[in-house]
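In this supplementary section we document a worked example of the pipeline. Step one takes a protein sequence of length 336 as its only input; no multiple sequence alignment statistics are reported here. Step two produces a three-dimensional model, which step three serialises into structure tokens for compact storage. The input and output of this example are shown verbatim.
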Amino acid sequence: MSGGTGVTIAYVQPAGHGWGPITAMAGLAARLLGAELLVLPDAPQSRVEKLSLLVPRRRGDETLIVIAAVPEHLNAIVRLPGVRRRFRAVAGWVIDCWWTDRIPVAVTRGRLYDRLYVTEKEVVEDWRSATGLPVGWLPLGADALGEWRRPRGTERGIDLQRIGRQAPAWDDDDRLRDLASRSGLVMGGRPPFGATAEESYSNVLDSYRGAKAVLAFTNLVSPAPYTHRTREYVTSRWLDALACGALVVGRRPREEGSDDLLWEGATLDLPVDAPAEGMEAVRDRLALWRPEDASALQHESMRRNDWRWRFETLAADLGLIAPVLDGEVAALRSEL
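The serialised model returned by step three reads:
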């Protein structure tokens, strides 16, 4: 935690191991923006607290950025000490923003936020209409520069690494391992869970670093109770894998804005219902793999998706002085 610049980042850390990438992002943002990081409890607000969201605030001198994993977390602002008198500017950044039926009272009727950011381009207008606030597109990213700075070896012993939920036909690990072996490929199993979300995320990143390709399918063909039924979206699986130099194979999301994040050559679509055919396509694609391919993916990831570009947008919009971020952006530009 750092402070002294008048910038506070408030983050409601959800339960579960899947939020490791956003937890890491919140810490990186605090370091680069010179902000105090407050981790708030993930608990529903009382009726009295929700009513207090409707009371306007007085303008102070500080800046507040609320990182909301889901829309309801915007309401947690009410639990910040002095929220009605400390802050000159208050911005919310919503990660799982596609739940537009769950936009909370904090921004539909509340008087505490000045502007919002959402990670999905296609819901910007939905949020503007519901809130009457300025809403910008600030997509997910990855610590691509951090990965680029790591010592880079040429050994990637796993050809295809399984990560997270898969399309039903691709969800049998034993069958996939057998199909991979028949195609002359080495298949990586599920990374182990750690004791915390941070440890689990570290294990996932290690698996990306040791793989030539990562298997991932868009939520529209690999649904789960926590995914949206009709909207598809790029998640951290794609962006972190590419930042680590791994090609992503399976079925990429194709929503508005996805082409800004995923470029030609970053992904390979496979038959959703034919894993044997798909494994052959992976074999053919990786037959030409060279270590330089991983470096090229990392380089393009830095150009498009590094978190530092997202933080630079925040700093510019909110009028922040952030010398550490400025130095990191300069280093990023130098690498490019």
